[in-house]
Amino acid sequence: MINTSFEQRAERRNRLIGLLRSEEHWKTSDLREHLGVSQRTLMRELAELRHAGYPIESDRGRGGGIRLNGRWGIERLNLNHHEVVELILSLAIMESLQSPLLTGNLKAIKQKLFQAFPQKQRSSVSTIRKRIMIGDNAANNIVSHYTAPDQRISESIAESFLRRNFLEIEYQSEAGERTLRVIETQYILLNWPIWYILAWDHLRLSSRVFRIDRIKNARIVDGSFQLRPKHMFTGIYAPIYQTI
Known about the structure:
Layout: H1 2-22, H2 28-35, H3 39-51, E1 56-59, E2 65-68, H4 81-96, H5 106-115, H6 119-129, E3 132-134, H7 140-143, H8 151-163, E4 165-172, E5 178-191, E6 194-201, E7 206-211, E8 215-224, H9 231-234, E9 242-243
Parallel strand pairs: 3-5
Antiparallel strand pairs: 1-2, 3-9, 4-5, 4-8, 5-6, 6-7
């Protein structure tokens, strides 16, 4: 419990520093809203940052606010491996879109970012990266029938994938039939903008592919899974998809 509390405070402080750097000045009410904390907690965090040497100033009067004085440099980022994966994945997606502008160095940036983290973290990130595949953009006739899933469903899928938790889903087939099943989110792949889950399906006792926009409900359930042999899920996709 103590470690969890410490991690939450450290993450909140990093978010506060990031917010202060992102704007010239902030109203305390806006900072509280972004962080989800009380006025007392915010004032305590600001006082501790000042004590740690951050040049935080308060401007009184109309139009004033809290600001980080001067060109305060960027210190070493403190990201957990899930945040690293999301950042690398964002770069990989941009790279796959093949924009003619401002994407020529994305592959190099992605590799430099990955190598900048400690070996233990690189190992965790590498395992997750190998479970994410990106291919070509989806065909127009498929995209025309695509509807982005609810945010809560996306979050449950992401948590199941990253933490290897069992996921119960209500899935609607192309014919409109709905079934309830428990799956293991072994791999995910992207045909922009459509995500697919390559899963072990406890209902069919075999590997199955699920389109994320056809998942109508999803929730984490008790139990966790181990990674199964990759060829059971990715064999037919290997020639046309690349891991991030």
